[in-house]
Amino acid sequence: MKLDFEEWNIHVGTPHAFNERAPRIDNGTERPDPRRYYDRDFMREEWEKVFCKSWLLACSVSDVAEPGDFYKFDIGPESIIVVRGDDGEVHAHYNACPHRGSRLVTTEHAR
Fold this sequence. Notes:
- The protein has one helix at residues 40-49; strands at residues 70-75, 78-84, 90-94, 109-110.
- It starts with 39 loop residues before the first helix and ends with a strand.
- It has 111 residues and is mostly beta strands.
- The chain has a four-stranded antiparallel sheet, with no helix packed on it.
């Protein structure tokens, strides 16, 4: 026996919003706008609206397992150093000297 759940009236007798069809949801099946791949304005807007306001995964804790291990995470114009400190905690810092602004780390990781 095949049941068609769309024909079930939840509230029989008086009209109710539960009996209405739900609006169609766009799950992003349309083709993306090609300018997202080459337009600098699109990149700036995406950087400000998405990457600056979202949690980002820089590395896993196993990448910085021992004190002194570090991992360099580059995204957009930013470079971050994730390091396991002598206290055993994981710390993240901008990859820039506070005095001169030079990059501190140029290799990807150290283990």
